[in-house]
């Protein structure tokens, strides 16, 4: 076949393809290849025809042969791109990306529009594959090309915004290079905005700041962006809120941070981050109740601040709301999620705080949960303070051998650690080895004097050691006073002071004051509440007694605060107010339906009210629960007599006389 015939055959192949006669085209191409096996156009036409005949493998082979012959010719590359773009081509995205890269290279010095089209296709392909770095780098090339062509500022602005859109999901699994390209896109988009200040520009700035806040290492850039936005939009609270949240999460409370909190609250008194910031300020200033109030309120208004839950738990621990502190720690841990970067440290601190709260709750279930929390602390096994907590949790769980083993190991490896000596003291104290406990607690106090709990346990050690140490002002009393001074929220220290002033010093007035303070600090402390009421009655101060009881009963949920209902019911019974006595004694029985004495008192209240049948039932219930309550059995007989049930009354009187021959009221009855 001559050169002229080859050209004619290729023309025939081209015409056949144009007329969709693909098999015919293949015949012509094969004839050419018999003569010239390296004919570029023949291989390209075979690729085209085979692709249309749905013979992708043959098409791909033909295009690749053509590319091998002429690597810098466009036709085969374009054909291969068209082939890979067809649906049902299997997993060819990686190959297609390589083809697009080559096409960009070939179009670069020629057809700029086609270069841009391929560039868009390549970016779309990378985006589908979540290859964000390649997306960013390729899109930047497109912008550079447009800049070289002298594109308008508006067009470039839209291109930078498009880049932000393409990369917005990349912050979840960010590599630093992609992150930097995204932040650069934001900065260019902000610089190229038409209307400044303006609505679109403001919205873009918010997105930029939100994006920056996800990069822990971009602190300086975040602060600058927030200040720049505040200068442009002085009435907007958003940049200040982000700054406040940043300061909270970073765990630093600098002058800058405090200024930020107060400025935000001046602009918006209801701002969640501002209120949280104020709560943390209160915590640092030892205003714990205000801290709890503000942090709780702030957290109701914003859910973007996991660290605030940790601070709330800290404040709750300071006022000994241990169960609430555990709940706050759980919220914090849930919000931290899988910790990375700064959250890693937060999670460790929160797990330790949760364990401390659970240990203070001091029951076996809480101890088990504390051990689980401590096990989750990364590198906790090498932290002596964490080990000491583990020892305390084991002690609370009743695992004495385990607690002793931890204590001995810590005293050998960390003899200067106060927590190690305190653990040893608690073990001795629980075994009533008070002399050894004294030595351990004195060592703990020597190593760390500012811990109220150590002084309290030392005081309790003296209290139980002997009558001599209990009465010695320089022993138990001194330690309880130190504990109360170091921690003015430690209700139990005031309760123990009350015990001292009542039982040792005989100072009822001072004892009452201590019990009252203990009860104000911990309204679940029935011992202190009861003692404060009883001493008020003994001192003839019924107003104070009633004030305490009224306060408790107003707040009490049904079935709780039995002691308060019972005390007030008995007061009403004594003072001739039987209807109020009935209501209060019924409330006491809802909390403890098996209290025979309470049923007896209720019977008395019904009797005084004139409700004889109900009184009879109450006295019978009392004697059922406690057959030894002779008075209740007698009152039941007397009521049967009043109600005209004489035979029953006689039988009941005889029942009493069998047990107690000389019980005068029964003989009289």
From TrEMBL:
Provide this UniProt record's keywords sorted from A to Z: Coiled coil, Repeat, TPR repeat
Q: Which GO terms describe its cellular component?
A: Ski complex
| Coiled coil feature spans | 3-39
Gene3D superfamilies in the record: Tetratricopeptide repeat domain
Q: Does the keyword Repeat apply?
A: yes
A biological process (GO) of this protein is: RNA catabolic process
Repeat among keywords: yes
Pfam families tied to this protein: TPR_16 (PF13432), TPR_19 (PF14559), TPR_6 (PF13174)
Q: Where are the TPR repeats?
A: 40-73, 562-595, 596-629
Q: Which PANTHER family match?
A: SUPERKILLER 3 PROTEIN-RELATED (PTHR15704), SUPERKILLER COMPLEX PROTEIN 3 (PTHR15704:SF7)
Q: What is this protein called?
A: TTC37 protein
Q: Which gene encodes it?
A: Ttc37
């Amino acid at each position: 076949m001559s050169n002229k015939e080859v050209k004619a055959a290729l023309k025939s192949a081209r015409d056949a393809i144009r007329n969709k006669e693909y098999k015919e085209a293949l015949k012509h191409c094969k004839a050419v290849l018999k003569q010239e096996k390296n004919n570029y156009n023949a291989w390209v036409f075979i690729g085209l025809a085979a692709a249309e005949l749905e013979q992708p493998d043959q098409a791909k082979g033909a295009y690749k042969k053509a590319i091998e012959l002429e690597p810098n010719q466009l036709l085969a590359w374009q054909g291969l791109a068209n082939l890979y773009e067809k649906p049902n081509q299997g997993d060819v995205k990686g190959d297609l990306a390589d083809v697009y890269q080559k096409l960009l290279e070939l179009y670069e010095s020629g057809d700029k529009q086609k270069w841009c089209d391929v560039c868009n296709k390549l970016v779309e392909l990378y985006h589908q594959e979540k290859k964000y770095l390649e997306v960013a780098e390729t899109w930047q090339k497109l912008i550079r090309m447009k800049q070289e062509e002298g594109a308008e500022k508006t067009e470039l602005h839209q291109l930078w915004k498009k880049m932000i859109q393409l990369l917005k999901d990349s912050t979840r699994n960010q590599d630093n290079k992609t992150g930097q390209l995204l932040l650069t896109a934001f900065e260019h988009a902000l610089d190229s905005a038409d209307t400044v200040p303006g609505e679109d520009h403001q919205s873009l700035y918010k997105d930029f700041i939100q994006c920056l806040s996800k990069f822990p290492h971009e602190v300086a850039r975040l602060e600058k962006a927030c200040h720049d936005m505040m200068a442009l939009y002085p009435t907007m609270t958003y940049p200040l809120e982000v700054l406040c949240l940043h300061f909270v999460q970073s765990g630093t409370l600098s002058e800058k941070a405090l200024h930020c909190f107060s400025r935000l609250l001046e602009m918006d008194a209801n701002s969640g981050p501002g209120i949280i910031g104020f709560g943390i300020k209160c915590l640092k200033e030892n205003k714990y109740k205000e801290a709890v109030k503000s942090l709780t309120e702030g957290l109701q208004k914003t859910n973007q601040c996991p660290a605030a839950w940790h601070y709330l738990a800290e404040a709750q621990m300071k006022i000994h709301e241990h169960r609430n502190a555990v709940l706050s720690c759980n919220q914090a841990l849930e919000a931290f999620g899988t910790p990375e970067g700064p959250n890693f440290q937060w999670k460790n601190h929160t797990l330790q705080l949760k364990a401390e709260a659970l240990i203070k709750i001091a029951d076996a279930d809480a101890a088990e949960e504390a051990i689980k929390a401590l096990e989750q602390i990364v590198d906790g096994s090498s932290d002596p303070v964490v080990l000491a907590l583990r020892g305390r949790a084991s002690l609370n769980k009743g695992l004495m051998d385990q607690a002793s083993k931890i204590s001995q190991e810590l005293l050998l490896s960390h003899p200067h650690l106060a927590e190690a000596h305190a653990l040893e003291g608690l073990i001795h104290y629980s075994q009533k080895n008070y002399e050894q406990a004294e030595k351990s607690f004195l060592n703990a106090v020597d190593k760390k004097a500012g811990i109220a709990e150590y002084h309290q346990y030392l005081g309790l050690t003296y209290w139980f050691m002997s009558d001599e140490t209990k009465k010695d002002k320089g022993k138990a009393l001194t330690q309880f006073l130190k504990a109360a001074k170091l921690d003015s929220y430690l209700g139990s220290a005031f309760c123990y002071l009350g015990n001292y002033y009542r039982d040792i010093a005989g100072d009822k007035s001072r004892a009452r004051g201590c019990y009252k303070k203990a009860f104000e600090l911990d309204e679940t402390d029935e011992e202190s509440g009861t003692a404060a009421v009883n001493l008020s009655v003994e001192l003839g101060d019924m107003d104070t007694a009633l004030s305490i009881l009224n306060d408790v009963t107003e707040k009490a949920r049904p079935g709780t605060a039995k002691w308060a209902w019972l005390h007030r019911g008995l007061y009403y019974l004594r003072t001739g107010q039987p209807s109020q006595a009935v209501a209060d004694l019924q409330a006491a029985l809802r909390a403890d339906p098996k209290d025979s004495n309470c049923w007896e008192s209720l019977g008395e209240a019904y009797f005084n009210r004139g409700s004889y049948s109900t009184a009879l039932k109450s006295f019978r219930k009392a004697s059922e629960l406690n057959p030894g309550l002779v008075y209740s059995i007698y009152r039941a007989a007397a009521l049967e007599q009043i109600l005209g049930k004489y035979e029953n009354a006689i039988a009941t009187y005889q029942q009493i006389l069998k047990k107690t021959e000389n019980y005068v009221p029964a003989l009289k009855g």
